[in-house]
Design a protein that fits this description.
Aminopeptidase; manganese; 468 residues; alpha/beta; five-stranded mixed β-sheet; 16 helices; elongated; Leucine Aminopeptidase, subunit E, domain 1
């Protein structure tokens, strides 16, 4: 399993340089209460306590005796997440401690942001940054925050790894390593059994190979022996050429991230297992490469899904919903208490909400509200989009039960979600995330590259949603 070693908090009793959090609104009063040398140093250096502003304060021997971290105001925290991560990026190696007047949620965000800021993808070039260590703030559950950071690092590593080293077989290896780490069971279906039992997964992936590490497969991991059943389904298209409806070069450049749904559910699975949530977890990943060969599936083909529905293929580049359909059909055969599907599915979702929001679809208003509140609480932003049933005729071509790529280009994310919904009709609660999985510009705690979306919000919401 490719894994950047996640950082750990320093020991609670470690000797640490203090970092004082200073809000902008209280700067004048705060300075008034400080000794004259510190006050003069802050004024001389123009310290204004802007969000993420860092000022090193020298001691008598000119070493850094303390650090001031500007916290900005309320509006700054609406615009910027993980303000404390800016200090982690600005400071050299060493051990630090944070102090200030923050809410419990803000302390957790500060601690997590510090850990996430140390991420560097150095598998092919460069060396890991010597990150400064943080003494865990009082009241923060260090083990939980470390587990969340580790899950996010796993997701980022998987998305960032090029397809030459992250094909279906490599994704299976990662899932097996994760299962072994947490004592989970894992089964993988491939070859003739896949062709018979999961015809859509096999059809999409057969052009890459019919055997060996590039061959399509269905990964099925299970963990836990009590509590409600949660099933996570992640799109594992390790590279997407578009098939015979070949993508142009500019659109193919980032297609190593088309397994971002699988990467996200594996990262979330680690968070769930590492924090010991009392539930039964099942992870289903259809792992394929959508390639071009003489055996590739064609526009106009009519395919039969695992649950018997027929699908007319009108675009081979709408392959993600095909492989997810078979996996969701399997999930529905043992109806979970909650099914969560995560996929880098449509460009329409990215156009609708941009790269920073994770759009999701569900008919369950209470579930939707719980996710929205959790996303706000843990600064993992989500946005609900509608499963608009009047659009159902758009995915009903007449020649088959379903159309994988309705013409016209309207409501692409919604019609994709409606398509998937046909395969979970016997599932009590279902939510589908259409994520982007990539951060196009560096931001605090979120470097450019692969990124998890929605996993932290889901983890936070699960105890209430599943009555754990």
């Amino acid at each position: 399993m490719i894994s950047t070693e996640p950082p750990r908090f320093a020991a609670p009793d470690a000797r640490a340089t203090p970092i004082q959090i200073v809000p902008k609104a209280g700067l004048k009063d705060w300075l008034t209460g400080q000794d004259e040398p510190l006050r003069d140093w802050a004024v001389a250096n123009g310290f204004e306590a802007n969000a993420g502003e860092v000022l090193r304060v020298p001691g008598p021997d000119l070493s850094v005796s303390r650090v001031l971290l500007g916290w900005g105001g309320a509006k700054d925290h609406v615009r910027t997440r993980f303000v404390a991560a800016r200090a982690a990026l600005a400071l050299k190696s060493g051990t630090y401690s944070l102090s200030g007047d923050l809410t419990a949620n803000a302390w957790e965000e500060a601690a997590l942001g510090w850990l996430l800021a140390s991420y560097r993808f150095t598998a092919y070039a460069g060396t890991p940054r010597s990150a400064p260590a943080l003494r865990v703030p009082r009241g923060v559950d260090a083990a939980r925050i470390e587990a969340i950071a580790a899950g996010e690092f796993l997701t980022r590593d998987l998305i960032n790894t090029p397809a030459a080293d992250m094909g279906p077989g490599d994704l299976e290896d990662t899932a097996r390593a994760l299962a072994n780490r947490h004592g989970a069971a894992i089964e993988v279906t491939s070859g003739a059994a896949l062709r018979e039992g999961f015809p859509l997964i096999h059809t999409v992936g057969r052009a890459a190979a019919t055997e060996g590490p590039r061959a399509p497969r269905l990964i099925d991991m299970s963990w836990g022996d009590g509590g409600p059943l949660l099933t996570l389904v992640g799109k594992g298209v390790c590279f997407d050429t578009g098939g015979l409806n070949l993508k142009p070069g500019a659109s193919m450049g980032l297609m190593k991230k088309d397994m971002g749904g699988a990467a996200t559910v594996l990262g979330l699975a680690h968070m769930i297992m590492a924090t010991g949530l009392r539930l039964r977890l099942r992870v289903l990943i259809p792992a394929v490469e959508n390639a071009v060969s003489g055996d590739a599936f064609r526009p106009g083909d009519i395919l039969r899904a695992r649950n018997g529905l027929s699908v007319e293929v009108n675009n081979t580049d709408a392959e993600g919903r095909l492989v997810l359909a078979d996996a969701l059909a399997l999930a529905s055969e043992t109806p979970p208490d909650l099914t969560i599907c995560m996929a880098t599915l449509t460009g329409a979702a990215r156009v609708a909400v941009g790269p920073d929001l994770a759009p999701y679809f569900t008919d369950d208003d209470a579930l939707a509200m719980a996710l929205a509140h959790a996303g706000h609480r843990v600064r993992d932003p989500l946005w609900r989009l509608p499963l608009h049933r009047p659009y159902d005729p758009m995915i009903e071509p007449g020649i088959a039960d379903l159309d994988n790529a309705p013409s016209g280009g309207m409501a692409g994310a919604i019609t994709a979600a409606l398509f998937l919904d046909r395969f979970v009709r016997d599932t009590p609660r279902f939510v589908h995330f259409d994520i982007y999985g990539w951060n196009p510009r560096p931001a605090p705690a979120r470097p450019k590259g692969g990124v998890g979306m929605g996993a932290r919000a889901i983890l936070d919401a699960l105890p209430g949603v599943l009555d754990l």
